[in-house]
């Protein structure tokens, strides 16, 4: 599904990703871990198509097609979804209208008519129940004045609405209390199927107790320096990242 | 002969051609003297520093409409708010169109200025109100000198106008360039309520300059909601002079939706002549090309315990220019005044510009006044966020800009107006989205 080959990327001439190789197949859950500043969020943004990041070398293939030249919205239309570490506040645009616009723009790109209002409402009801989101919440301005947990829950709600093929969850666990974490993880797990894939970017192992990865990768200094099964996450939790740094620097 | 000379010399002929009602005749004669003395404003005047009339005054305008033109409703329906029942006072090239209008004298007067100026039964109202709010500024005086046609709306005591009133001034471009000077008088008596929608619309690309004066009197506890929809063609310029006198406990709101023409100047003046008055001034300005819009507001707090709320949002693209000049005067007697003003702008192009200038003159010591102006750009991180959800950049920008102006739109009381404005905004921003936030 996703095939990243020798990916180099920089922002304002500062090189951040220095040769990433990663392959994600349908049905898989990958976790990307690593110390602060290792390039985790950059990788997520580059896959999603943030313009400020320049791909200087290598390529990103999604379902057999190079996507690094595509605009962010085109990648979204193909089924790439990024849950933001810091969801942006958009005053004046309600959650509901934002989702309506997003879904209908995706449909437009596929040559489909707008989703009938009745179906839209039904979908919103269904998915908000999945994430245990209060109806009143949906008429509020997107992310404005939301608590950290509400923002993250709202990200997964959007994911549920858009049903992406590849979901990248960037530090979705940060700012979540244990109940919110359970709700969010439960949401992700319910959306999981053999046809879609999830990449979880996290600093801590905590979320991986709920969203269990098939593969764990350690990103350090712009490269994936170690890969393993879910037990690697436990090892990192116990030992921290210093031993990885030592291994790499040795 | 320049435009000023042309106007001054045509005054005599004009004054002979209409009736010589003594009061109005005196007012008009006085006004032409003021105009003759002051002439058109120039950039040397502080209030006109950022708006130059030079170019548009060089055009050879025909000063009086020569022939009457008819329009088919179906051809101009799009400029009406047509999905609700309204009274309509419609003018074509400055002449009343009975065919397109729907006036009334049933309980309220929704009719013509020409009738009010000429018929004895309106004489008292005319003597009490005509030119009693308009300033002695040169452009208003010019309009006064030639004041003969426009909307006349009189809502007697304890009446709620049963439906909104639309006042539309069409110009058909049958002259290569025309000057129009509509004059509107609106008197809303004690405890009464009216909603008015005003539009100036050119139907061709021929030059048109409109110098309009509207006087509004909101008497005790009256409520006036006024909506100005400005979305004209590239050769249509508008100088809108609106003067509102409020008596105690009245509420008067003006929403100005300025999508521009060529040059637009909105002189909006409020005079608070009583206690516990609320004055509301709201504006959304969205410009492109080389359009120019100048909002020049005045709120004069004269009595204690009053409020004023100003909120203007502007979005400027291409090489458009905007001006916001908001003056608040709080007289010594006007203690406990609450006056708020905010002007927020987004520049979406490197070549667009905005000049914003709050002016507060406060002579009372126990008041709350605040003003704030901002000039910014669209939030790039918000754009990426929206794009990552599948909303293309252009639509994402439009949605952000719409959301930015939504504060102003949310106070529009007639849903059909809001829908219409939404459509104009979508059109203006080149997107096809509903904005039903």
UniProtKB/TrEMBL annotation, chain A:
Enumerate the UniProt keywords alphabetically.
Answer: ATP-binding, Nucleotide-binding
One Pfam entry name: ABC_tran
Q: GO: which molecular function terms? A: ATP binding; ATP hydrolysis activity
The Swiss-Prot or TrEMBL record describes its family as follows: Belongs to the ABC transporter superfamily. Ycf16 family.
Q: Where is the ABC transporter domain?
A: 2-246
Gene name as annotated = sufC
The yes or no answer to whether the keyword Repressor is present is no
Q: Which InterPro entries match?
A: AAA+_ATPase (IPR003593), ABC_transporter-like_ATP-bd (IPR003439), FeS-cluster_ATPase_SufC (IPR010230), P-loop_NTPase (IPR027417)
Name recorded for this polypeptide: ABC transporter ATP-binding protein
SUPFAM superfamilies attached to this UniProt entry? P-loop containing nucleoside triphosphate hydrolases (SSF52540)
Q: Cross-referenced Gene3D superfamilies, in alphabetical order?
A: P-loop containing nucleotide triphosphate hydrolases (3.40.50.300)
User: What superkingdom heads the lineage?
Assistant: Bacteria
